[in-house]
Amino acid sequence: MEDWGIERYLRENFDVPAKNQSEAAQRKWRAAVTIVKNRRRRFRMVPDLDKRVEDATKRRSIQEKIRVALYVQHAAFQFMDAANKKEYKLTEEVISAGYSISPDELASIASAHDMKALKVHGGVEGISRKIRAPLDNGVSTEDLQTRQKIYGVNKYTEKPSRSFWMFVWDALHDLTLIILMVCALISVVVGLATEGFPKGMYDGLGIMLSILLVVLVTAVSDYRQSLQFKELDKEKKKIFVHVTRNGSRQKVLIYDLVVGDIVHLSIGDQIPADGLFISGYSLLIDESSMSGESDPVYITREKPFLLAGTKVQDGSAKMLITAVGMRTEWGRLMSTLSQGGEDETPLQVKLNGVATIIGKIGLAFACLTFLVLIGRFLIAKGITVGLLKWYPEDALTVLNYFAIAVTIIVVAVPEGLPLAVTLSLAYAMKKLMDDKALVRHLAACETMGSASCICTDKTGTLTTNHMVVDKIWLCDVSVNAKDTIEDLNVLISENVVSTLLQGIFENSSSEVVKGKDGKNTILGTPTETALLEFGLKLEGEKHPQHRACEKVKVEPFNSVKKIMSVIVNLPRGGYRAFCKGASEIILGMCDKMIDSEGDVKPLEESKMKETLDIINSFASDALRTLCLAFVDMEGYNESEEIPTEGYTLVAIFGIKDPVRPGVKEAVKTCIDAGIMVRMVTGDNINTAKAIAKECGILTADGVAIEGPDFRSKSPEEMKELIPKIQVMARSLPLDKHTLVTNLRSMFQEVVAVTGDGTNDAPALHESDIGLAMGIAGTEVAKESADVIVLDDNFATIINVARWGRAVNINIQKFVQFQLTVNVVALVVNFVSACITGTAPLTAVQLLWVNMIMDTLGALALATEPPNDEMMKRPPVRRGDSFITRTMWRNIIGQGLYQLIVLGTLMFAGKRILNISGPDSDLVVNTLIFNSFVFCQVFNEINSREMEKINVFRGIFSNWVFSAIILITVIFQVIIVEFLGTFASTVPLSWQFWVLSVVLGSISLIIGAILKCIPVESGRKNIEKPNGYEPIPSGPDGV
């Protein structure tokens, strides 16, 4: 049963990966979709592949022009005649604002890399004077509006968003609705000619009003979705940068940047606008997004040009903004591209396949129904009056049969299936946004529901990232930093304190700034902040002489080297290199240590072992360990590398980073849900193990391994080792990438990976779901991720998994509900046409049923919030059937019950219920319609739980579901009791209303009985991690 034809067909034609889809796979499934009622609406969210190819070609063309302009022709520019140079004139507006350079001239300097023009204007300092932006204090906030008015806003021109009426227009492109509108118009014309006004127009008008209602409800639903996506898109584009304004450093939104702003750059940042390098260290820029050049470029004062859209690969710097928005090449490039749309999710593609299969069946049934109705009509006509005599009433009858056939297609082609995925994902993404998770790609939310493994960082994700120095070892003394800062001056000499403070303040990428209130604020990473806070306390009220050094070379920290180094020019002459980082690495670079008097002595082997024991004891207390060392240098030249040996050990810091509240419970939730959590960290293995045990990640039978050991394993050894790995310490980004690749290829795991650094980008890209940290994460990491965890909290990741599972299960509920309606509506009308020559459900009634099962059904079932039960079952594996045996059982069981009820009413209703009189047929047909609708109402409630008997649990907590059920019932009463003229119904007695509700409610009893029939027992135990059974026994089963 698992390999039914439908599943095989879907796998062959509608199977795409969640990420990195090939163009061939995308074109294959599009070609397989043959029956579409409204292509414009169905594929509204699907990217135009031809447009995407066109955009890629256009981008390459623009990049080539930029590359030629910047690199190939640059050498030729110096030989060009000055007469050919463009003249720029200052306008009155620019002069009156106090600026001395025009916006276009200023923008051209950076975009054209025009060194000659820069020198003419006096270099970076000259430019800053001409735009009234002091390099120390930055711009004044009072000038911001003036600068935006003259030099532009940092936004590029985007396509205007679609209005509500455009969605109405899209909904009107449904081919079946257009045909029905034509039928309705003909019906009105013929009806008026034969029956007069107003009776002759009721049937046609009823169809037109139904179509209008369908179109409006569809358009409202689609428009609300578009607003949700628009809001999420705004959040995706929110990038904050550090600037200096009014002499103080602050965070501003990228769109609020103005010409003259002083921007602070660090590793992983995206350059927010065109500008000039002011100062910095080892600034390496990746310009591939602009020029297509893969080789990174070093930026210095001799080569100071920075372009918007490029990325900081290494180093740190300050830059002066000279052009924003549409005056930058990046702005012009982005405005020319159509953005191509986002790749469709695997579930959307699969449901397009399901819709195609059902659509073909529905089309066949509609054609057969029409042929049977026409055949019976012609036979009856031939027998009674002959085929040569035709009356206007005959034309209306044929038209009515055609309208019924077309309406069967409306009901049978489940156009709403793939769109229900979009609706469910939009709803989940909006809820996740409220819960501090920004989903960047639609497929990520869906895929996260199938995650079987999470490879998580430690710092900031499992821990709070609020770090403090808890212990410090220096000069053979280990002290508690919180209690004995005052005593350190007694224990050690002034020279040692001075050297320690020099190492803390000079070898730091963070900055101590004074706020408007006069208090010190530290801007930088949590680790650096902890060290600087300790340094400030130790420094006290003393004059900070140790900050008087001049930095001459900096090597910023990165996750590969795991160290940060700096060379400083000492106030009394001479050079000194400071180095800090991973304890074992720094200790390996040392051959000396400093004593309590500040004298240097050899670091003997016994002392080395003693020091390692100190590091391990700190780490075993779950402290992050960091070593600080220095080496004095005789001289220094720019080409000289920072030394890597001969250092003198100064101190070992033990930094406390407590485990986040709720992490232990979140890890337990993962284990219960069949999701394995692995910690991958750059920290010391003892620190990692201590934290992992505290979180519940490392168990007695689990393995903790260091990155170098992992890298040395052969593929065969890795295959045996990887399932047992729970902690990987001292790992490089490459180790994380290798682990993810092997988990996916060797074990077919669906892997989620967290990352915050630039070097994490490959692992984030390779994983099934990349999770970037919103606070600690770099822009490069966020760009490579599928989800941004805005609060950096592991518990938020579990929430994404909960909603991912909810999306998958909700869509399955909706598919089960809709297929049941489809089967019953098709069979009832077809069988009735064959046997009685009429269709009990009219076009208007079928349109109403279509709205119940399509738009309203999707709103009700696709927006169910997650519950705790979802995290007590294993994840869905790759390749598992989407329409499960459980779903088939429920569809077939409910379908058979409804067919028996409606068939009985159709063929024996008059006799059983003693209905007689001239309108008996109309009463029976109304009762059939009413019972059919109430069967769907109760089946919708049934569909809330596919496996559990209690379908009412939490029903009132989901107000959307409750409201839709209520609206459906109210409208049904109105249609039957008051709109009979248009809907071909008559008012029913209270007894028949009770009968309709009772017949519908029996669906709940049928559902409970069906759920007691085991259908998944044939699956192997290996497919049921944690011993999960789809139909659990006991109270939980109810």
Structural commentary:
The strands form four sheets. Strands 10, 11, 14, 15, 16, 17, 18, 19 and 20 form a nine-stranded mixed β-sheet that branches. The chain has an eight-stranded mixed β-sheet with strand order 8-26-25-24-9-21-23-22, sandwiched between helices. Strands 1, 2, 3, 4, 5, 6 and 7 form a seven-stranded antiparallel β-sheet that branches. Among the domains are: 89-157 and 238-338, Calcium-transporting ATPase, cytoplasmic transduction domain A; 437-463 and 660-792, HAD superfamily/HAD-like (Rossmann fold, 3-Layer(aba) Sandwich); 468-656, Calcium-transporting ATPase, cytoplasmic domain N (3-Layer(aba) Sandwich). It is 51% helix and 14% strand. The chain has 1038 residues and is an alpha+beta fold.
- For the secondary structure, the number of strands is 26
Report Rg: 36 Å
CATH C-level label of the domain at 468-656: Alpha Beta
Count of helical stretches: 38
User: Main sheet?
Assistant: 9 strands, mixed
- Low-pLDDT residue intervals, each spanning 5 or more residues: 75-83, 1018-1038
Shape: elongated
- CATH domain fold name of the domain at 468-656: Calcium-transporting ATPase, cytoplasmic domain N
- SSE-based structural type: alpha+beta
What is the CATH H-level superfamily of the domain at 468-656?
Calcium-transporting ATPase, cytoplasmic domain N
Bin the strand percentage. 5-15%
Q: Termini separation (Å)? A: 27 Å
Mean pLDDT: 84
CATH architectural arrangement of the domain at 468-656: 3-Layer(aba) Sandwich
Helix percentage: 40-55%
